[in-house]
Amino acid sequence: MSKFNLRALLLLGLTLAAGYGLWQAYHSSGPIMSASISSNGTFAITAHKDQKLILWDLEGHRRKIISRNANIYSAYFIKRQPIFLWQDLDNTVTAQSVNGEVKTAFELNKPTYGHLMTHDLSTYYYSGIGWGIFRRTEDGSTETLKATDRRAFLGYHKLFNLSMDESEQWIVSAGSGEPKGFEPPYYRSLQEVLDQGADYQHLYSVALWNLETGQPTAKLDGNSSKTHATISPDGQWVISADENGIGSFWNTDQPETRHRLATYEGGIYLDDAPFEDGDPRKSDKSELIDAPAGLNNFTITVAFIHNSEYYLRFGNNSHFTALFKTGSPWPVKYLDLGESPKLVTYGSQYDRNTAIATSPESGTLVMGHQSTGGISVYQFDPEELTLERVWVVK
Amino acid sequence: MNSGKNNLIDHLFLWQPAVADNAWWRYAIPRHLRAASKAWDLATADDPMDDILGKLRGAYDKKWWIFPSFLNNGFGPAIEKLYKDYLPLTFEAWMTAHPQRSLATPAGLKKTVKENWARLEKDILAEANALWQPCIDCLRNGERPPDYTLLAPLNHQASVSPQMAKDYVVRLKKLAVNNWVPEQRPRPALGYVGFEEVTRRGATGFDEFIEQSLDDEKFSPVDQSKWLFSHSGMRIPSDEVFDRSYRAEIIRRISDEGVGFGRY
After folding, report:
1. Rounded CA gap, A114 and A98, in Å?
2. Cβ distance A56 to A375 under 8 Å?
3. Residue partners of B249: CB distance under 8 A and separation at least 6
């Protein structure tokens, strides 16, 4: 081969390599910060650290970049609709169908830090950097349910997580557990919180909001530190778990009764047992099941995976998740999510707890990865109680 | 706190100790205290120590931290202060109003950042070169070596060679690429293995007391990684720095100078 041909070949190779590099850079994405799945489990929407918004076709195994200018906490699928919600960096909120049709769009006066929309697209709930809760109706008017508190997000380094039931009657909010007092009743009442700040400004712990009245009906105490909580699709159960390893559940008909979830090694902590901490009699281990090493009680997220019957609890720095059945404090089964690629559960990423999403209707789970822009998709089998990793994009 | 055995402490709680872990375990503690099976680094914003020990309450009660700017930025604030004349050094907008945004990176900004790095690197190397010989001379004469300004994070070194300064710039750039967040996580304070390691399922050192104290909210874990490195000696969290700082600042005082640790 002549010298000229060799040079031309080399040049072509270099051009191709550079082109491939540019193409890669253009199409790759930062780690997922928020994710949401359509109720039927066919699509997922994810917002990434580099402001990309990506629509994933979970059946066709395809993806499409919707925007390169998205609020990283704004990926949300509207329940029972093929419509997702997102906000751009000019604060415009858009509800658009998976086919690209814009259903509604409006400008907000601030960036959202988590938001929801009712399935008829009429009412929009959102939180801000100060952990407020706001309700915007179709006519553009906005009402404050919970007042904002400076820049709470930066202080706690975590979102004020919001979750709504299928009937759209309830919202559960969860920020950070209220520190337990020294004496009974240990926690402030709703009235005391209100007295200390108008519009429940300091209501950081798990709370159940009645959307008809726009008021919290219950303050669900007992969590500590960064706390995540969710409400079951049927509105009957609230589940919470936190950075302290404390898990709890409540029946919304009896919000004054808190039930503890068992920890994986220690069992159920017995608050009223007359023993000191460290005494084995202070815990009930009677129904603990055999479990793999590496499960961690310190919880990033809890999420319903099969209707209102089963939910998953995701521990920090662990690739296992614990399956629970509503109404019972005991783990039913431990499921391995896989070690590689490393999931968002690694690295104490409480500010990315929205990178884990489920559709309890379809039994679908999507998870972001620890430090890359990929996604892992799982399918739950309610008969076998298994979770199969059906699609991984690295 | 005593488990019933002589000279054995089950849990040792410390109030905001400003020493690092390996110093504690290797050198600085009397033998009977080394027998402590767990050690804690406790702090609350307003509870006095007596309350902590008396009621075992308030291990980092989570509340509004008084240094919010550290929470999101890793080394950001320290770097910002140290190299204030050279900013911006990154495209990442950690000073923007909302962290989910980032500034667009126009060509002008890229150029500015590139120029700032070139200037900073030049000045750092110039400082290393300028002080290299004076440092050696001081050490020979038994005098205190001059303090570095741009190389202040390496002030624990007796002197900084030009090659060390080059390595420092490389590390600094690597940190910048990672948004000033170090790749190496801080080790749990004072050699304690951390809550997770004694409460997770299958942990060899599972501790019922810790687990139940977490359940009862007596303790709360705090991830210190976001702000620990603003602490003076921990800005460059390499094993080398950990090791050198303890040898130079602690062991030297105890064994060589005989003045004891903790004297300032």
Report:
1. 20
2. yes
3. B156, B233
Do A24 and A39 sit in the same domain of this protein?
no
Beta strands A83-87; A76-77: pairing state: antiparallel
Q: Do B216 and A292 touch (CB under 8 A)?
A: no
Statement to judge: residues A132 and A36 lie in one domain: yes
On the question of pLDDT at A185 being above 50, the answer is yes
Range of the domain at A10: 1-30
By the 10 Å C-beta count (0-12 exposed, 13-18 middle, 19+ buried), A216 is classed as buried
How deeply is A376 buried, as exposed, middle or buried, from its count of CB atoms within 10 A (0-12, 13-18, 19+)?
buried
Flag the least confident range among A114-123, A150-159, A240-249: A150-159
CA atoms B227, B232, B236, B238: torsion sign: negative
Q: Helices B107-141 and B162-177 sit at what angle, rounded to 10 degrees?
A: 150
CA distances from A254 to A6, A204, A208 (A): 79, 21, 12
Phi, psi of B140 (to 5 degrees): -60, -40
Distance of CA B179 to the CA centre of its chain: 17
Four-residue CA torsion sign, A291, A306, A54, A168: negative
Residues of B in contact with A151 (CB under 8 A): 68
**Residue from the list B64, B201, B225 with its beta carbon closest to the beta carbon of A155:** B64
pLDDT mean across residues, chain A: 94
**How many CB atoms neighbour CB B206 within 10 A?**
15
Higher pLDDT among residues A100 and B142, named by residue: A100
CA B237/CA B230 separation, integer angstroms: 11
Check whether residue A107 and residue A2 sit in a common domain. no
B101: confidence class by pLDDT, cuts 50, 70, 90:
low
The shortest C-alpha distance from A212 to chain B (Å) reads: 31
Nearest-Cα distance to chain B for A71, in Å, is 6
Comparison of pLDDT for A347 and B249, the residue scoring more: A347
Do A22 and A168 belong to one domain? no
Residues A8 and A49 both lie in one domain: no
- SS3 category, B152: helix
Are A19 and A78 within one domain?
no
**Nearest-10 Cα torsion for A265, B61, A228, A189:** 110
User: What is the count of structural domains for chain A?
Assistant: 2
**Which neighbouring-strand residues pair with A247?**
A241
Return d(Cα A349, Cα A353) in angstroms, integer. Answer: 7
Structure tokens at A282: 């202070």
* Whether A58 and A169 share a structural domain: yes
Q: What is the pLDDT of residue B114?
A: 86
CA angle A43, A49, A53 (to 5 degrees): 35
Domain coordinates of chain B in residue numbers? 1-68+186-232+239-264, 75-180
- Residue A310 structure tokens: 């089963």
Q: What are phi and psi of A28, to 5 degrees?
A: -75, 165
Optimal mutation site among B98, B103, B179, interface A, most CBs of chain A within 10 A: B98
Query: CA-CA distance, B26 to B191, in Å (whole number)?
Result: 10
Q: Are residues A136 and A277 in the same domain?
A: yes
Here the ipTM equals 0.85
Asked whether the beta carbons of residue A296 and residue B55 sit closer than 8 angstroms, the reply is no
Model confidence over A21-61: pLDDT tens digits? 666 666 788 999 999 999 999 999 999 988 999 999 999 99
CATH of the domain at A150: 2.130.10.10
Distances (CA, A) of A386 to A136, A312, A325, B100: 40, 12, 14, 35
Q: Do A155 and B65 touch (CB under 8 A)?
A: yes
**Closest to A176 (Cβ–Cβ): which among B55, B62, B195?**
B62
